[in-house]
Amino acid sequence: MQEKKVEAQNILSMNSVEVLYDNVMLAIKGVSVQVPTGGMIALLGSNGAGKSTTLKAISGLLKAERGRISRGEITFQGADITEALAQKRVEMGICHVIEGRRVFEHLTPDENLTAAAPHGMSRSTLNAEKDKIYGYFPRLAERKNSQAGYLSGGEQQMLAIGRALVTQPKLLMLDEPSLGLAPFLVEEIFGILQKINKDEGLSVLLVEQNALAALEIVSQGYLIENGRVVMHGTAEALKSNSDIQEFYLGGGETDFHNVKHYSRRKRWLS
Amino acid sequence: MDWVFLSELAINGALTGLLYSLFAIGLVLIYKASSVPNLAQGGLTMVGAYVVLALARDVGLPLWLAIPLAAVVMFGLGFGIERVALRRLAGRPVVMILMLTLGLDIFLRGTTLAIWGGTSRSMELGVSYDPLFLGDIFISRIHLVGAGVALVLFVAFMLFFRTRTGIKLRAIADDYMASWSVGISVERGVGFSWALASVVAVAAGVIWGEIQGVDQALSLLLLKGLTVAVLGGLDSILGAVIAGIILGVVENVGADFLDPLVGGGSRELIVAAVLILTVMIRPHGLFGRHDIERV
């Protein structure tokens, strides 16, 4: 009974998922992540910890990199999507803003948005979606007919998010949206994400190395290391955790002694 | 200097050039949607011509029916090629896909040889051979018809790439991964571009088949078509049209000057020089997209 209720509250549930690349390299080793409906969750961790792989497992983009889920299952709104095609998952409402922005450089921002329109979306709905996105990101509206490749980094990130919103997602996943952006831009973009989350009830799964900024806007976070979840808690708990402070928030002392101390206390959660 | 003769050379060169463009548009379509130069476009053009002949002569259909029907068959073939061969290679290095298209070209040539043999078959479109005079200038009617077809296709595809489907195809050419991430079916998009290019191949195959007969030599059009596409910028349809005209004029006029000096055969030299110089001096061609590097 209790379990059923939890299931209904989570838009996405990922249970002990293992991912292999090229059938040999184990990229994540049994990761479990739950995203509550309408919630904002962060996956934190250092480079190569398995955060991006986790997102790709959820969006189905693993296949493009010759990866596959070898164990575990992923359910979205109660439906098993472990084997579904990436395109199908976008139709169901999962959209993945991949790392490095990756806008369609030779298209205009307006065409970038058009390109993401779901099959069968009417022209008027598409225009309404575009207007809404230009409302969130007024800078894009100003430059909507220039070439997307010449936008600034911040504008490209906004465009990448806008492009994902055109697919009318229920769960938006972002991979390192703050990468290479000035702090004030990160703040602006995260503020808009928060607003969209509130206004539209869009669930958000955010992957970040910039733990400080991420923990400001999410309610819960997972810490991933070496392909495993090593910590899970509310944003407040994580912010006040001394290990997190030391290694991800850049406070405290970081000498060799502490590193050893930290790894001894680390525990596997799943 | 004989100006009438020179303008006759130039005008007929431009018309022939537009026929190269007709071929090159097929190359551009595929490049624009998948960033792959299709070395099998010559083979497709040849097969397009053979299919028209098979329907018109062997089945006995009238030409006005055989040509659209061949276009439908070739549309299916284009889709089939993606489904059977290219899909496995999505995301692999372009050079592997390039080799695949080369293999495909050889395969198509071999197939037509096996089915229809190597003797040239004639394609009779019923376009009169009577000379057409524009003032004192002689113009070939079939070239004029072909140039018209090229221009119609040019306008049609310019408009197509502004539609939603066209924009999605351009998005795929830009970034496969990003396309997948927003739910664009890259596989279907690439298949569609091959299907369209195969339809263009029918048009090019019919016109060129009428001019030089239908045999395996039709696939060698690839060399001139590729030169035009590269000069135009590989992903620009406008570029293919303008580059076609340029190459046609330069080839026709240039050969008239050079042939007496070298004793003939300078056409091929001119085409080769244009291709090599383009790649060396202006690798993006006249209208090609540049890879964007922001500072």
> Mean pLDDT of chain B, rounded to whole units?
92
- SSE arrangement of chain A, N to C: HEEEHEEHEHHHHEHEHEEHHH
Shape of chain A: globular
Separation of the first and last Cα atoms of chain A: 23 Å
Kindly estimate the percentage of residues of chain A that lie in beta strands according to DSSP: 25-35%
SS-based class of chain A: alpha/beta
Structural class of chain B: mainly alpha
Our Rg estimate of chain B from Cα atoms comes to 19 Å
Second rung of CATH, namely the architecture of chain A: 3-Layer(aba) Sandwich
Share in helix of chain A: 40-55%
User: Which fold does the CATH topology of chain A refer to?
Assistant: Rossmann fold
The CATH topology label of chain B is ABC transporter involved in vitamin B12 uptake, BtuC
Major sheet: arrangement of strands of chain A? 6-7-8-3-9-10
Specify the CATH architecture of chain B. Orthogonal Bundle
Number of DSSP strand runs of chain A = 10
Shape of chain B: globular
Distance between the termini of chain B: 52 Å
Family (chain A): Belongs to the ABC transporter superfamily.
Pfam family, one (chain A): ABC_tran
InterPro entries (chain A): AAA+_ATPase, ABC_transporter-like_ATP-bd, ABC_transporter-like_CS, BCAA_Transport_ATP-bd_LivF, P-loop_NTPase
Keywords (chain A): Amino-acid transport, ATP-binding, Nucleotide-binding, Transport
